[in-house]
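hey m, so remember when u said the tokens were messed up on ur end? i reran from scratch. heres the input so u can diff it against urs
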Amino acid sequence: IYKINILLFEKTLYKILILICIYLIVIRPSLLYLNFTYWINFLFKSSQSILLLLGFEAKVESFYLIGTNGSIFMTKSCLGFKTMFLFAAIVYLTGNNRRTQFLFIISGLLFLNLVNVLRFVLLFIHIQKHGGYALAMDLHTLYTSIIYFFVFVLWVIWYEKYSDVILN
């Protein structure tokens, strides 16, 4: 009843194996053994710059974005590497034009990092205005869900405009 494109699976089998190897050899060990101090510092410095433009005082110290009414602590899981890898993997698996894939992946990853910085900014502003952390954790979850929504939107754009997959 349903038409299944077997050729698509045959062409992407080796790509799936490459992605599994990249995840097992590069992504997973790096998340286990590296602390990403420079990346966290870059994200918090970017957040600090935006906060200063909005009139909020913020100070960055290693894994903390510190304000007068509270601070944000960032762990490796807040960097969104697994989410970004999943986004890039789907784009990689569903296209043949390497240049288009590369440009879409790079621009998508930059956009997701910008959204991540905005997530930190909004969370920091909430903590500075309301002081408590009780609702801040719920907002953290909400902002994470928003990032997943943006990943979904990027995938829809990819499938509609650039992907080589034909959905019947």
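this time it looks ok to me. Strands lie at 59-61, 64-66, 71-73. if urs says something different then somethings off w ur setup not the seq
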